[in-house]
Amino acid sequence: MGCSLLKRHWQQIAIGSAIVSIVTPSWALPTASSIGSAGIDALRLHQPPYNLTGKKIAIGQVEVGRPSQFGWDKVPQQPNIKLEQIFYQDGSAKANKHVEQHATLVAAVMISRDKRFPGVAPDARLYASAVGIPKDSGQPEECRSIQHIAAQNGGDVRAINLSFGEPLARDPRPQAKLDGNALFTQCLDWSARVHNVTYLVAGNQGKGGISIPTDNYNGINVAYSTLRQGIYQKLDFANLSEMPTGTAKKIADREVNVGNRRSIGLVAPGGNLQLYNLLGKAIVVNGTSFATPHVTGTVALLQEFGDRQLRTRQQLPEAVRSRWSLDARRHEVMKAVLLNSADKIQDTGDGLRLGMTRTLLAKNNRDWTESEPDRGSQVPLDYQLGAGQLHAFRAYQQFSSGQYPPLVPVPAIGWDYRTVAAGEYRDYPIDRALAAQSWVSISLTWDRLVELSDPNGNGRYDSGEVFRDRGLNHLDLYLMRADEDRIDRSLWSSTSSVDSVQHIFHQIRDPGKYKIRVHFRQAVNLPQQAYGLAWWTVEGKS
């Protein structure tokens, strides 16, 4: 009887890559919260002494439909979701038009104020736009929509969530491939740089996936994990982010990134999530669509902390004051911090694994250390797992350490935003000797240069205009002994020629002093390159 009841009250709705599983029996609901300690541990940041809820931080959401606005739409609505403003593409939204349950659920993950199922950043200011159904929209409308959201709040929107995408089959280019040059993808990379926005993208690739704009360079694509033994630690089988081989490769060879460039940046909880639908009923949802807003909400929490430090800067001790500037708002810094603080392998309690809270498993049950990035320097991220699983509290620890410049000794944990000239390098000597058998995590991020061909000179994308891909400068990342200057003698390196991320996760066998080097190997466009850098190491006992 129980099975028949479940079958009768359960349905699946495919929205892009997401599968929304609706379950009405209360006994069918999972008990672990994706934003609690079983997931990204954001609830800890809501509480004293942190008190981080995304207050006064603007974030965005763009997808096919839009969330229901309480007090505006007459359709069923969610009073626990307070939207700052709603739009249709780059214009005003009409009441009861383009309201979608999927968009409302995605918004709930970010900003729900419900006590039972709270959002990651319940006090963030969410601006949302619907691009419309496919017959009414395409990549030009999608570009105008994200551009419009990026311009809200006086042009100060810190992150934009894209839990939707464009199938490669709809790309008008002949023999279209995921080479980063679809109009929507170029638009995202241009906007990230021009508007200084961290873009978070539901990260499915593969046959039938929502491939565009997952071939972006300047955002973060997100895969999703599901519950295993009560915590989110296993990549779900529904993710389409594995490397195709054999027959599968022949089928999907056009729906993965061209060449060896990685797609997935992070994993976040997206399986068996508990939310309320438009009718106010508790349901269970699954998909990358719902993993992605976990990352977007986490950006809001971190940015609230950063703004707090800037606002109270004059009251901070001098040693702390120097670590905080407007660089804390840079999207390259956010990307580096989020990637570098991700969980990979569980710490045993001695801190040598950087206090990581779980071992994240791929579909075949291997962990990150058994993946390509651990075997060679040409592949910075794992094909399925990216840099690991989002952990909001660890991201706070990484970010709150503050900014430190190169050349002078830096602490065990920190970040920086800097520029480097072609052919030159920046060294970051770590102040104290590192512990034997400890792990080092370092992440370097920078932007592909995409420019808008703007004949009317208004600084905005207008339908019919095009973008120009000026390519990706080549930056490399090295872990070296403090007294070594030759990069061919580095302890470990990340030297991908195709990615806009370099990432090192490596175990220190011998105690001693080390340094990090950022090297601008080759200029493809401009001779100066801005970058974000984050590092996390373990000091030896004195």
- Specify the overall morphology: globular
Query: What fraction, in percent, of the residue positions are helical?
Result: 10-25%
Number of strands: 23
| Percent of residues in beta strands | 15-25%
Major pleated sheet: 9 strands, mixed
* Low-pLDDT stretches: 1-28, 241-252
Mean pLDDT: 89
Structural class: alpha/beta
Radius of gyration: 22 Å
For the record, give the distance between the C-alpha atoms at the N and C termini, rounded to a whole number.
65 Å
Number of helices in the DSSP assignment: 11
Describe the structure.
This protein has 542 residues and is an alpha/beta fold. Helices cover 19% and strands 24% of the residues. It contains eleven helices and 23 strands. Strands 3, 4, 5, 6, 7, 8, 9, 10 and 11 form a nine-stranded mixed β-sheet that branches. It has a four-stranded antiparallel β-sheet with strand order 14-23-16-21. The chain has a four-stranded antiparallel β-sheet with strand order 15-22-19-20, with no helix packed on it. α3 (101-111) runs parallel beside α8, α4 (139-150) runs parallel beside α6 (183-195) and α8 (288-311) runs parallel beside α11. The N and C termini lie far apart (65 Å).
